[in-house]
Amino acid sequence: MEQGVKHPYVAMLVTGVSLVGIIVSFIFFSRELKHIFLEVDSNPGNLVWLMLLLAISLVTFHMGLAKSLMYILLGFKHFTQRGTNQFLLRQLSAMLSSNAILLGSLSFLIVFAMIAANFSFLYKEIEEANLDKQYPFDIIANINAEQEGSIPLEQAKETIESYMPIDWSKVYNGYSTNERTFHKHTIWQGDKYQDVDMFMKESDVNELLQELGSKPLNLENQFAIFSDMPGIQGADFSEASFNHKGQTYTLSHVVESMPMFLWSYFVIVVPDEVVEGMEISQTAVAITLEEGPFDAQKLQDALSYSYKIEENNYSILSSDYRVKEQRRLYAAAFSAIFIVGALYLAVVFILLAMAILALKILSNLRDDEKKYRLLNRLGVNEELQRKTLAKQIFVFFTFPIVVPICLSIPITIILNQFIDLAGFSAMLNFNIVSVSIVVVIGMIYFLYFMVTFGLTKKYVIQRR
Description:
membrane, five-stranded mixed sheet, alpha+beta, 11 strands, transmembrane, elongated
């Protein structure tokens, strides 16, 4: 047994158990993520415990592997008898065993850096996609005429025209029967939910879709479900139907990526005649402006009003009109701070990991020089010594990064799952970003390896 490695079989067991812990953490993280999006009684705090399990498993996995891998390889006699392999394995066995905890901790830092980098770019992409979903037009309004101080549509249009000419506008309604028949098929059911089924006319929806450049609906004795909420994925409307004037209407299809046309979890789009006799529940306006710069913040302020809460004796600033460009500027400012912060942490963690590895190698130069001098006395030529030293440093450098690179696959799968659950699968593909992050980390890592090898080689081999 290799000197300095105690209880190798226990180390193998720790490695196996830790590997199971890593796999389990990702599997349950994926399940919990789906549960959070599609269920009401979810607990996001479980994700923190799964991240903790991943961190502990990564550290213990590298501890066990560092103390058992070289012991296993030394058992292959045909391999160890070739060239300087036995010398190399014994060198690595001592280095990995003495730095096992450090290597495991660095591996977790690298994984965390990859997650932070991926999530920062993901946040940016989702922010832009979500903006297009929540603000399909330049200005969206849900007019609350009963609210004191609310700005009438015609007055609002005059205000808007003073900033930028209106190119197209559409007033449309949401209709209701004050029933919750369709809500019973969704997660938004029970006494704590007071929302009623919301209907829209097919002609209104088609005009809105046409302005957005989307394919219009063609409903004949059918209805469609539109929603921008992930929870609609868990709904089963296959048996849903209703009658109107003796005609039965059945489900045509469900659209899970609808832009936000009305304030509602989902909208039932029906042929125009179906809404006859229903009461108007919401009145909305979609406005497209001519292209050109304008002061979006001032326009949003001009379309805002305040109303007083009598019982609490304070005023609230509100607006029925939402200006897309103002929201874009606000989101860009916030996302810039978030992305820079996340990327800064990722870069710091990566550079810290590489710097620590390099310092560990450089701190052992005197010891390595003695051992390679012995190797020289045994008749090993300088070229083979350089190759052996390169392999030694390369394995030590790559030991804490191999697992994080492998974990980039499940990380990407979970991020794509997040995109799908959030309703952006048709708008985003995150695979290229994830691959690019791994490539960049690999290039920086390789650069550090080359610099460290160059310095070590000069001292250990060429100094004699």
